[in-house]
Design goal:
Largest sheet: 9 strands, antiparallel
Strand content: 15-25%
Number of helices: 16
Mean pLDDT: 95
Low-confidence stretches: none
Shape: globular
Distance between the termini: 42 Å
Amino acid sequence: MGTVNKSAGDEAIAALPDEAVRSFIDRFHGDLLRPSDDEYDDAREVWNGMIDKYPALVARCVDVDDVATAVDFARNHDLPLAVRGGGHNAAGTAVCDGGLVVDLTEMNGVRVDPEAKTVRVDGGATLGDVDLETQRFGLATALGVVSETGVAGLTLNGGYGHLSRKYGLALDNLISVDVVTADGKLRHASADENEDLFWAIRGGGGNFGVVTALEYALHEVGPDVYALFVWFHGDDTAVAMDAFREWTETAPRDASALAFTAHVPDIAEFPEESWGEPAIAFLGSYLGDPDDAEDVFDSFRERATPITDLSGVMAYADLQSMLDEDYPDGLRYYWKSIFLEELTDDVIDLMTRYNESAPSALSTIDVWHLGDAVADVPQDATAFWHRDKPYMLNFEANWEDADDDDANVGWVREGFAEAQTLSIASGRYGNFPGLNEDPAKLLYGENYDRLVDVKTKYDPDNLFRSNTNVPPRPTGA
């Protein structure tokens, strides 16, 4: 199968005019990889091992001119186009079959202005790249919770993390972006320039162009914070989640917590007799005085005895990379999420049952506590719509063997279908999209029609469609 797909990629290039291909090669400053090149197989791989696509060309861009040249080439020759920042999107949108991949991996610079408390980040940078530079000055911006995630993809779809309840979504911290749109032009977008594009970029995902740079506001965070990481036996799920539910109703904005059902990993940090057992765990942080953290999180430990408690003061950068080992490159992932108006007993029961039936011990079911700074922003202020929901439920299937694909994908879909029947559940989150099988309207709510207007203006032929796609209006409509 791989040989057939590689041949199809070569045939797609061979079908193009020789002069056009030579002109592209001559103008391009970075590396252009074809299926016959030794580095091709590595270049087409993304984080999610489920994704097995064969592009005709991988364009490893080294500057904005490369990006514009690649976009022009794809548009002029009607090639499918995908954009790779960190390559961490669970749906595998960073690569496409028979088309061109705009690879921003080499464009990963981070430049901090400590006086202005801003940071300019290139489109191929990861969270770890940003945290490394900003923490030199005791600063951070609101990003995600896995340091190897690409900043651009995370931000364009929202961006929840340890700082969200105090400083909002990653996209709420954007000051400006540079975007190469479908016409190959570089546009600067901010509150004062190309305002419609800036509105749409913040939540509209990759629908509007290649984001080559992002400018964020920074906040005083770290260098040390208090990390909550405590695990309980699965038998205690109901009482532990009840404590979590009560905690979320009065939690200070300086504090965050994520609840997840899981299975105890076979590692030395956990008692050997608990390995492989169902569990309920909580991961969070407190940004205030670490001496006050025990009081903030005491209620998590009052109703049950932990299997293990790994909480304590640590470097903020270490907190940001704590989960990296749990989400390695090449593991197989299928994630779907839905927002909740409240955390009911039915949700907790669903989490318990599906944790016990999970085909893979690596899988989890997560409840994100949202609200506060995220909810402070009006729903129509950016394209991101589901700000009013206090919780998000996410099914994470994580497994190793391709032979187990059907069982794990089926597990998520079955549990997710049951979650959808709950009257308190609605919407979708763009960073946990399954395989982009759901309509984009579920992400964007009443912002959808406005997004279509912006899409029609900047990408009338839908060049950027390797995403949760918002199609433009048909010509003449």
